[in-house]
Input
Amino acid sequence: MKGRDILSIGDLAPQELRSLLELATRLKKDGHDQPLQGRTLALVFEKPSLRTRLSFEVAMRSLGGHCLYFSPQEVGLGVREPVKDVARVLERHVDCIAVRTFEQEKVEEMARWAAVPVINALSDHEHPTQALADLLTVLEAKGGLAGVTIAFVGDGNNVARSLCLGAAMSGAHFRIASPEGYELPPALVERARALADGSGGSIALVRHPHEAVAGADVVYTDVWTSMGQEEEAGARRRAFAGYTVDQALMSLAAPDAIFMHDLPAHRGEEVVDEVIEGPRSVVWQQAENKTHAVKALLLLLLAGEGG
Output
């Protein structure tokens, strides 16, 4: 029987998301045995990675399983050989596949052809495991997610998209400030608002960072230029002028607001050093939490826990 895939954070039902975060919290606090002994996870990565690769490898090995890493040169998805061929080879050797690539279509094709679970470990469209880590961090810092206001300052990129959907499912109030031409896709906003209607949350798209951050419990930003967009770097720096999270912007948030960034950070662009190194920053806790979130997700897909 075909394994379950997580290609979007929205592939989880709201109750499943809550259960996964509860499981991740327990795993972080109480530890665990090794229920995935004898299981193997393949990491098929077309983009470089520090935190995502680290979290998957540490999570799988700590749960008793094994990881196999395949670089772009070794696989060449859609270039060296078709995605469907890679999928059908891998499914006969491993129990789960995590794909980190540019095109969402490659993740979807891998899932279509592989008879084992496929996880989106980042695509240009979404970054669901990052959203799990983000929501876990907010949950720890604020004691809950419902009613929490999360302000995202910057590009409506893959990180923002997954966080928007996850916040909507969790009853949080998600605000995003983006310059013209860099907003969240309308279809995703529509989907998020439908989820928020069912959870008591809300979604707001604004233009000015001050509008998003005012009174917020969480201030989040990400790089202005993601991998694969290097040729746009100059244009993006001009478009995002005024979107830097500095001390003045943070002063508009709630007094106990936290600062988040999924890293790597371009200090002096989307955030200043005083903020990311300041007392409100939880970015290192956030980076650690990806491992605990991935553990919970692997247990859901391979051991039936957390559902």
Observations:
- Residues 130-286 form a domain with the Rossmann fold fold (CATH 3.40.50.1370).
